[in-house]
Protein 1
Amino acid sequence: MDASIFQIILIFAVTFVVAIDQFSLLQSLYQPIVTGLVIGLILGDVQTGLIVGGTYQLMTIGNMPVGGAQPPNAVIGGIMATVLAITLGLQPAAAVATAIPFSLLGQYGVT
């Protein structure tokens, strides 16, 4: 599936808002399962968005910033996993595994 320019701009806007503002009062909205739903709505495949977002959420549910250690950014990884699964037609497990480097890069951008 090819994404249109409008869809790419919407995905960028959602990613920007969620990545910048993930430490506000609405922290429960900035979870991979919610962002998977939103990206699924934008790309037209809500079911895959929820499945991939839920899978990524389960993988990162125990990651806590303890001491000086920072876990990978679950929000960026969840968004990338959803985009990869829908646009490339990957299985949820393959999309989650492929998105892990993006979550590491996202964490470097936050810190």
Protein 2
Amino acid sequence: MEDSMYSLQDAIRCHLCETPVPPKHCDICHIHLCKACVGKHLSDQSRNHYILPFKLRGITPKCTKHFKEVCKQLCTTCNIPVCPLCVASHEHEKHKKEDILTWFEYKRAPMQNDLQDLEKSIYPRYQEAAKSIPVQRAGVNKRCRKLKTALDKQGEVLHTEIDTIIQGMKLKIDEMDAQHMAAIDRHEVAINHTITEITQTILDLKRLLETSDVGLFSEYITRTEEFKVLPAYFQVTLPTFTPQLINREQIRQQIGSLSELAITFLLDEPRILTCTLTECRDVLSVSCLSDSELWTRGGDNIMRLYNLQGELLRSLKTKSGNEPQDMAVTRVEILCTLITGIDL
């Protein structure tokens, strides 16, 4: 290993003074330079120079229009590297241009941040989410077995006359089990798919960070914010079995009941579906009459009913003229407040 390091240092030396491992490189002259020799090299005014860190050597591409020139700048308007002749032309006269090394470092920093976020934060979270899938499956199977066992015990007491009912309820459990498993499978597929995308993105970023291809850097679009949001978790209301005392005339009712399987997906963050403007000076409270209508109060003695499109459907004014202190909506659509006496 030490011999390899010595060989590497011997191979990379300053072209002017033979100092090993030079930190600088002239990307036009294609020579390595130590810090002490940079000034001497720049003093040669017979040709242009472009000094940059050794690790970024090769960053300046050849101009596709002027073959003897190299591109020291990037036209951010056209998103292409440009040489001095391109800069002087009318084509890029009013365009915004940046030093290609400055632009490269500017683009490199967020890419490195993306890579760190993916490797240190996002990818581990997906791995933890993937690990929970087998546990969820085991829990589903365990609860399913418990439910079936309870049904079998009831079936032993009721004997043959309830076999048909028992079989029907087992099928219902299996259907709910299948629904639950299907939900978990979809969740796993979403997680594994995103893990695959993250893995590929990490590999692509690593390869991209090792290259000096300005074209590839300019095409890079971050997906980190997209990956930060994990697929929505779901909450399951598990079915339960409630046994009853056996009554031959009311067998079906006395076997018990299975609650329905309820799968609710939970969002990591609240989602804004719509924004509704009201005539209230300050909205102090809101009561939903339905999924599409809501009562509001605040700032005056009027309570207003709006739909989600912001249309005023109805209003109520207190007889006393005082501002209502609270309100609630009953099933029969009656608005109640702490202020008695309301004019419709």
Protein 3
Amino acid sequence: MGDVSRREVTKEWERLRRKYKLPKLQEIEKEIGFYLTSKPVISEALKGIARILNSISLDIEAVLYPKDLAGMIEKNFFTEEEREKLYDFYREIRSKLCKVPIAVMGEEREKASLFKELLKFYREKAKSSGRQFYDRLSKGWREKSKGKEKITYLR
């Protein structure tokens, strides 16, 4: 449908919010970090939350299956056991992301249901686990920059 006025987007979201018990638009825009300007708004909201989850999954994938220097270094920031837990989290995200295209092609009810599921997953798990993951990467790079670790595979 494309770009429409913000008023139309807000009105459409309010209708969906009442019908499917969704959170307020401003609340999720602030929390997820997107600003809806297009219709169908539920599809756009789904894509917005999917972008965040996809970003987390791609960063985890780079650690689990390094393809570049950064990934090879970052892999060593985690123990084998921690990488196994990361893989479980990665699988969980990927399984949820695979539902997005199906829902986007589906009915409004299906889209709203998946949006609620993804938002719940984001709030209850992805946000905290993602934060721990990124904190660990940041800490690893800080320690790496202090020269505490040796890069033996480059010699």
